[in-house]
Amino acid sequence: MKTSRDHWSIKDLDSRYVFMNEPALKFMRCPKGYDVIGKLESEVKLPSSMEYWPEFIALDRKTIESRKIVTNIDVYYY
Question: Residue 11 CA to chain centroid, in angstroms?
Fold first, then answer.
């Protein structure tokens, strides 16, 4: 995942980021050197997540409760 051209991120059961590869950091428009590891979605404070973090947390909860793999396709208006 680290060397993938696709963007990947992993969160723990508390919805804290434990991994995010370079394409994901670029996709989220993270400034160079910005560290998301250990942060909740609400703590990331980036335009790409500020408005929708409650929905992202709800999706995390639903995934954890279902105990199934969930594929998420993100669609953004640019």
Answer: 7
